[in-house]
Design a protein that fits this description.
With 353 residues, chain A is of the alpha+beta class. Chain A contains twelve helices and 18 strands. In chain A, a hairpin with a 6-residue loop joins strand 3 and strand 4. Chain B has two domains: 236 residues, no CATH class; 107 residues, abc type-2 transporter like domain (abc type-2 transporter like fold). Classes of the chains: A alpha+beta (353), B mainly alpha (369).
Chain lengths: 353, 369
Amino acid sequence: MIEKTVQCPKCHTTLICTGEPGEVVKVKCSNCGTLGKVTFKTPIPSDEIAIEVSNLKKVYGDLVAVDGISFYVKKGEVFAFLGPNGAGKTTTVEMIESIRVPTAGSIKILGKDIKTSFNDVKEKIGILPQEFHSYERLTVRETLMYFSKLYEKRADVDQILQMMDLTDHKKMLYRNLSGGLKQRVGVAISLVNDPEIVFLDEPTTGLDPKARREVWNVISGLKKRGKTVFLTTHYMEEAEHLADHITIIHKGKIIAEGSLDELTKKYGTGAVLHVNKCSNSDTAKILKERGFSATSEGNGNISVKIDYKERVLEVLSELRRACVDYESIEIRHSNLEEVFLNLTGAKLSEETP
Amino acid sequence: MKPRIIITDFVASMKGWLRSRGTIFWSIVFPVMLILIFGAIFSGSDNPTYTLSIQDLDNSEFSQNYTQMLENITVLDVQKIPRDIDINDYIKENDLRGALVIPEGFGDKILESFYNKNVTVNLSFYYDPSDQGATSVVRSIIGSSLQEFNLRIANGKHIIGMDQVSTITSKFKYIDFFIPGMIGFTIMQLCIYGSIERNTKYRKDGILRKLQTTPITRTEWILSKMLFMLFLSFFSTSIAVIVGILAWNVVITINIWMIAIIIGNSFLFSGIGMLIGRFVKEEETADTAAGAITFPMMFLAGTFFPLDQMPQFLQDFARILPLYYVNEGLRNSMINLDYEKAIFYTGIVLIFAGIFFIAGVLLTKWKED
């Protein structure tokens, strides 16, 4: 029997329910009566887990920065820890990296409790801290050599330079690099010991779109090489683009987790067809009468929820039958922004300065 | 403890230092510059010369003999003023600080004095009251020369004389005082600011966070940095000593006490730097805090000027400053060769070093709260 703590998506009341692995249990919120389902996932074998966090808590005086969170990261996946600034992302990742001391809870990396065995774990992880800047007066190659020599197990520095597309810059002093190149060097540093797990704490913050793309390519490359990547970010498109599994943290608590598909299906509104500049102002009403979930958005624009892809053709056929002309159509899928909005009532981008 | 890791970090520090113009300036160029400048300013102070203008209105054998006597005094540069010029105008026009006028009838009055004991004759000394230092020296020389001249005229002889015996090394010059102070001061600057950079800039840049997730331990890191600071300290000391010897012929003795003080000095001010870095997180603020500590010490701990030239309350204050004991220890071990004092000051420096370094190490944290 597994005990699970869940939060009502409507009133955020915390509920405790129990179930067997693989079981789906119906739950009714004791506060607002909302009905929901809780899935008790079949536990994955411990040798497939890279990181396991249980009831992790961090308190600063009266402030609860991280409020008893639990999650795990599977080996070989890109795990995105998504949340606005101040949500508790960096505090969590720094506790996992043993930089901060947790108030309560336990953390296991590759099956070892970091409280007692972090020194054993150090050789197997690579870390890019948030806003990291390396030694200014070492060249790129010297920087990698410096960090490489701290480890017993070392990857070939020249190969890393090549992989990160840094070979042409290897003789440049770190201080003379652009922001994007510095981040690439930061990621390269985290690979000098050929780690099994790579922690990247907001690796693209402050970078221009081109540099951000470059870092994304590097992270995709890491996944292809079988590395487990723990990525913290407040950019939803970054998580959407890179992550196999996304965990959303808000005000120190995990509010949702799953793959992008799972999250958008569960918390998003699905796909929506937008029909722009309709010739008839009652178009939404007409479609509603014919069984479509349509909403008027003003200025002749309407949106229709699409449950399956053929539904698009059905909507367009109905419009033709009703002699409604339109200027353009657009299909928008649910994204993490919408998921976050539905879960918290606020936009992720608005909460992230 | 892995020597490989310590050497790796030491080599990285070395490369960073060699590529930083700022640190090269403060560790090499600045002390050399000060030694050369201060050495040049005070290099003549052992054999100063004073200009004395003389107008001989008498032009007798006596006045010529007296003028000749003044000319033979090595510290005086005697310049003669023509007889037909008004002395006041001449002083103003030539901006003279001192002039001696031998009056007309000087020789006759001396001759007359052989018969009449009541006869005296006075020379006139014109001086600039704003230049008290030089004036008092010249006046004292003239006084002594007149005594000697009176003695010669009276056919007298010297019965009581004075032997001068220096209580310090054979030739103790200002530069001998200055070089140990400069060594102490340079090491203080290097260690405090180096320590602050490591504890504030590295923290801000995430280097400390990164390092604690790698196999390097805090002990290995601190040890490596201290080895590097010791290297810098001895390197700067060597440069100062070599420049002192080559440029100013300073006689320096290298001994165990000097080495112990340099090591103690490095640990002492690295410890103070760590403490500043622990409590003042911002790099700029930490630099200001370091300046607030080092700047008064630079002037009050006897780096540039001997302590006994200061008012008593400042002398008392200086004795609570660690740099004072470093400077005095270095002077007594390197220059004065007073080993009893050198041991005393070395002991105090090592006690200071122990307290501050241990406190710094204990309070320096890698882990965040």
